[in-house]
Amino acid sequence: MSSTSNPSTQHTSTIGAIGAPSRRNTELALLVFAVVIPVFAYANVGLALDDQVPAGLLSYGLGLGLMAGLGHLAVRKFAPYADPLLLPLATLLNGLGLVAIWRLDQSEKLQASRTFVEAAPRQLMYSAIGVAFFVAVLFFLKDHRVLQRYTYISMAGALVLLLLPLVPGLGHNVFGAKIWIKIPGLGTLQPGEFAKIVLAVFFAGYLMVKRDALALASRRFMGLYLPRGRDLGPIIVVWIISILILVFETDLGTSLLFFGMFVIMLYVATERTSWIVFGLLMSAVGAVGVASFEPHIQTRVQAWLDPMREFELSRAGVQDGIVHSEQAMQALWAFGSGGTLGSGWGQGHSDLIGFAANSDFILATFGEELGLAGVMALLLLYALIVERGVRTALAARDPFGKLLAIGLSGAFALQVFVVAGGVMGLIPLTGMTMPFLAYGGSSVIANWALIGILLRISDTARRPAPAPVSNPDAEMTQVVRP
Amino acid sequence: MSELTLTVMRLGFLAVLWLFVIVAVQVIRSDLFGTRVTQRGSRREAGRQQAARQAPPQQRQQPSGGRRGRNTPTKLVVTEGTLTGTTVALQGQTITLGRAHDSTIVLDDDYASSRHARIYPDRDGQWIVEDLGSTNGTYLDRTRLTTPTPISPGAPIRIGKTVIELRK
């Protein structure tokens, strides 16, 4: 039996889920579940705050249900073999985010602040636009390999998106981080969220062509493959751009996200561990170097190393030219007072964080009101989305789809890590938002589009092979045979 | 609202949230092991054929193909090259190989032509590999193909740096 003579490759066949059923009904069942949970949470908030079921329960539930239903119908129609988990997971996170934002809207302290606006109805609208984007991606992008044609256009597009916040008159400085643009009459936009997707397309197309040169031409030194000097070019260019982002936009998160995404994709494309070593070294050198002269980054690092001191300086109203923030410490207190099981929906005091409580710091609300158990479940939901993305990459049969799926899910994972790590005090805080949970139009819309592209790739990967084509050779032999 | 009700709701919500996570993982599990039955079958079958040859041939038959013989391969496996580990189930369809994006297996290989080769079953279910006029040729074992050639399971088909073979 020659086919069993090589047992080491026997286990590889679990990769392709080929001939699998479409799993659309599983997805529908999970979606119903994913809509019921936020509705439960919404009712819970109302009962805890006002002793009555909130009046908007029906419209909120219907709105979320309608969005989920539309998404599901679009998947059923345009991507029938796509992964059954991505849509329910995204819907649940989006729904829970809406509940938390609405819950913070009810806070009297936040209502008293000058800049208060009802955030929940806006977020519901942004989510609806996001789902519309999701449906549009599935409708217009019939095959993800089309994106490969736009490799270098994507590069230009991503650079433009990244540079937009620096354009005078368009850029919009929100508390130090210049990652916003202001469109007159339309509001603000965070172009970095969209650049994330466009850049993944460019990296995937570029690395697919160049990966052999990057992987094969190397010398072995101390167990590592050292690339040739000239092959270091691309990684150095991306590194310089990410450093420039750090210096001019003063946002550690965006910079880390783009460089990290490139290193992940480079590693996957070339299978060389040395790229990860290089990437970690370069990002460490870059971050330390920039932090040594950039005051905004220094403040963030200070607040990370000693949040209590920052809190006291801010309380004391010290004016030394640096913005001191109480938020980092308050977020930690929120997590601490939540404990293992949390205080329950509507019974925490995370609204004390004040500014950005419903965007950058929304995880602190979950930490206080749902406790460790709830935050763990949320992080697992994110992990499941990333896992489905990576599995899509494994199942994809074309290298471009593989790299694109890895890049998108890697960027998603990095973003969750950067935000969650920042709020929990593991790394310095950044100006990025938790995908789907946090208040913010750009983030929700871009992430729904990201899920749409992942579903498109997974539909292509999981689609069973086409029906047997009648073979001209076989037709001819039919005549000869008795 | 009484303290007790709120506590019950709080714990109930966490339970429901975790239930969702567990259900999602169950879905992944069924997705992961969706091909387990056939795999296990073929592995057990292989062992049995080595031990005793009298295994009834009906057991080999797949539900998808009614009249498949003893030596019918069920999947195509990439054993070398950048796509190592990729499998394609053989269900009577034609499999095209090449750098063209609409190929069944898209080869990312400087030595492959855009439409390099195809693998298809003839009327008896015997799988045939045919070179489609490629520049650098398709090799079955060590010999370069000039005509459509039947493939025996396990024989390596080499295209550039990629090696594929048919497995049971």
Describe the structure in brief.
The complex is a heterodimer of chains A (482) and B (168). Helices cover 65% and strands 5% of the residues of chain A. Chain A is mostly helical and 482 residues long.
Overall mean confidence score, pLDDT of chain B: 76
Helix content of chain A: 55-70%
Average pLDDT rating of chain A: 82
Strand content of chain B: 15-25%
Indicate the overall shape of chain B: elongated
Model description:
The complex is a heterodimer of chains A (482) and B (168). Chain A is mainly alpha-helical. Chain A is built from 17 helices and 5 strands. The longest helix of chain A has 34 residues. Chain A is globular and about 65 Å long. The two termini of chain A are 33 Å apart. In chain B, the strands form 2 sheets. Chain B has a 6-stranded antiparallel β-sheet, with no helix packed on it. In chain B, strands 4-3-5-6-9 form a 5-stranded mixed β-sheet, with no helix packed on it. Chain B is elongated, with a radius of gyration of 23 Å. Helix content of chain B is 27%, strand content 24%. About 21% of the residues of chain B have low confidence.
